[in-house]
Design a protein that fits this description.
The structure holds 2 protein chains of 2 kinds.
Chain A: H1 2-7, E1 27-35, E2 41-50, E3 57-66, E4 75-84, E5 90-105, E6 109-125, E7 129-147, H2 149-153, E8 161-181, E9 184-194, E10 205-215, H3 218-232
Antiparallel strand pairs in A: 1-2, 1-10, 2-3, 3-4, 4-5, 5-6, 6-7, 7-8, 8-9, 9-10
Chain B: H1 2-14, E1 34-37, E2 40-48, E3 53-58, E4 85-90, H2 107-121, E5 128-133, H3 135-146, E6 151-157, H4 164-168, H5 181-189, H6 198-211, H7 230-237, E7 259-264, H8 273-279, E8 286-291, H9 304-320
Parallel strand pairs in B: 3-4, 3-5, 5-6, 6-7, 7-8
Antiparallel strand pairs in B: 1-2, 2-4
The chains are: A mainly beta, B alpha/beta.
Chain lengths: ~240, ~325
């Protein structure tokens, strides 16, 4: 079980266009929203690109909260890492891994749990564009539940506090695409979200649209410098 | 240190599956009173006079358990229905503490279950009294429509629409709206509780149970549940429960005994006085009693004693006229 958990990873809300740059260390902040475990959950995130072992690696963190009915009891905080197996642009094979702390609060109970998510994305990656199919598996390692007075006295719940092992899982299969316009990346994720054999009428789909701003890569510094030089008319980049 | 961490993780992942999400069913707890028929096992409790005419109580939903009807089992104004009758409290298929099923949760199966239960509690066919609330009232009317000779008395407490035509003309407010807080709570909670078995389904549905009727069917006092029948609610939401174009009134003219209909009169209830006035004419002889200020479940819970008294008076009346 532990090995399986450790093998899982997360790819949600990760920048899609490659973050690596051989002459700098790009970073990005962004936000995404859509339908993903709730209607209009807003995710804000930070990520940075590294290049260990000569392979692009993205490290990041996100915070998600359903905003249609904001409740500070409903939160998900995640950290993740995603590695490009291919060193070069072109065919893209990425593996990702991450952990989340998730909280929820409603009339019947409040709960907090820890989940691992993991996945693989296979597709095509260009300098300013990437598209691929993704497979993401998630497993909640445990959930600690605290029932409300209503949940016990009216709802019949037989406990006040309890911890449950492996109470939730998910399997997402879909499309992931991103385009970099200057420093701004637009990213889309959409697909099917399988959750439990007795799932109810909640649509088993996810679809999010994200926007992020990047900075810190040499190519952008160079572009700014070239712009300044052009305005000054000397044709040289300032030192 | 590493060993402690690993052991803690193993314990967390394996050992924590022991607590129960919801109360046990008759399959998990052999001490619960149960009856087996129709390839299932049902939670059935009996109170009152063993030799008395059986009164079968039918809960609403479909999907509710009988707990919220049990105020009808109390002594009210010095009278207890159980002093003269045998009271039968039944959790319908897949509900309350009865056995769970993945499929076969539809009206034909429920009809077969009630038919079998009546045979068990009334083997000599002297007749049973049916008391049903909401869906349970529809269920009781349907049985009476099919087997009027087996029904000694019929009490419908805010029954739902007895025909598809009336249902279409009295639509339930749209409870599943994307902006509803309970919808978002329910969806988000699935990050932590996947609906992969009946225990988790019944548990998670509690999130919806309160919110889904939050803006209508308002009650003075919330009625309790022991355990929802999630798979039954799921079948109903998925359109698998009712056949197309149901009609529980086709042969009700064969039932000539007085019927007691009890309703509340709160403006938020779609099943209150107004609806009952529209459908009471399907019975040959019916009396409508309206409980002022009573919501949809208030009629059996907050005002359970008032209803129990009305039922007792009704039974005295029909027994005297036999």
């Amino acid at each position: 079980m532990i090995a399986a958990l450790l093998a899982l990873a997360v790819v949600a809300h990760v920048p899609t266009v490659r973050m690596d740059d051989e002459h700098g260390r790009p970073s990005t902040v962004g936000a995404s929203t859509g339908f993903d475990d709730a209607l209009l959950p807003v995710t804000v995130g930070y990520a940075t690109g590294l290049r260990p072992w000569q392979r692009p690696l993205t490290l990041g963190a996100t915070l998600t909260m359903p905003m249609l009915r904001p409740d500070f009891g409903d939160l998900r905080g995640s950290v993740y890492a995603e590695l490009d197996v291919n060193r070069e642009l072109g065919w893209m094979v990425r593996v990702a891994h991450g952990w989340s702390v998730i909280g929820t609060r409603n009339d019947a109970f409040s709960a907090v749990g820890m989940a691992a998510r993991g996945g693989v994305t296979v597709g095509w990656s260009a300098r300013r564009f990437a598209i691929g199919g993704e497979l993401v598996a998630g497993l909640t390692a445990f959930t600690h539940v605290h029932t409300t007075t209503w949940g016990r006295e009216i709802g019949g719940l037989p406990f006040t506090r309890a911890t449950f092992g492996a109470p939730a899982w998910s399997l997402e299969t879909g499309l992931r695409a991103g385009v970099l316009l200057g420093r701004v990346e637009l990213a889309l994720r959409a697909g099917f979200d399988r959750k439990g054999r007795l799932n109810l009428a909640i649509p088993p789909v996810y679809a999010t649209l994200g926007v992020a701003v990047r900075w810190g890569a040499d190519e952008w510094r160079d572009a700014v410098a070239r712009g300044r030089a052009k305005r000054h008319g000397d044709g040289r980049a300032p030192q | 240190m590493q060993r402690i961490v690993v052991l803690a993780l193993v314990g967390m992942l394996v050992g924590c599956g022991d607590p129960e999400w919801v109360p046990a069913t008759v399959d998990d707890d052999p001490d619960l009173p149960a009856l087996e028929f129709n390839d299932s096992r049902f939670h059935v409790e009996r109170t009152g006079l063993d030799s008395g005419v059986p009164i079968i109580f039918l809960a609403g939903g479909p999907g509710n358990d009988f707990e919220y009807l049990t105020r009808l089992d109390e002594t009210c104004d010095g009278q207890w229905l159980g002093s003269r009758y045998s009271l039968v409290w039944w959790d319908q298929r897949g509900c309350g503490r009865s056995r769970r099923h993945d499929d076969g949760l539809n009206l034909p199966q429920f009809r077969a279950d009630l038919d079998a239960l009546v045979e068990i509690v009334d083997p000599s066919a002297r007749g049973v009294v049916l008391v049903g609330h909401s869906w349970g009232g529809m269920f009781a009317a349907d049985f009476t429509n099919r087997h009027p000779e087996r029904v000694r008395g019929l009490v419908l407490i805010e029954p739902g629409e007895l025909t598809q035509e009336l249902l279409d003309d009295n639509p339930t407010p749209d409870i599943v709206t994307p902006a509803a807080e309970w919808v978002n709570d329910f969806a988000w909670a699935q990050e932590l509780v996947t609906l992969d078995d009946h225990e988790r389904l019944d548990f998670a549905l509690l999130v919806a149970a309160r919110g889904a009727q939050g803006s209508y069917r308002i009650n003075r006092e919330e009625a309790p549940t022991v355990r929802l029948g999630g798979a039954v609610i799921r079948a109903n939401l998925g359109g698998e429960f009712y056949p197309d174009g149901y009609d529980f009134t086709t042969d009700l003219d064969r039932f000539t005994t007085e019927v007691l209909v009890i309703a509340g009169d709160t403006p938020t209830s779609d099943l209150g006085r107004e609806l009952q006035l529209r459908q009471i004419d399907v019975f040959v002889d019916a009396t409508l009693e309206v409980l002022e200020g009573s919501g949809h479940t208030d009629v059996v819970w907050a005002d359970g004693c008032r209803s129990a008294t009305l039922i007792d008076e009704y039974l005295t009346r029909i027994e005297a006229s036999r």
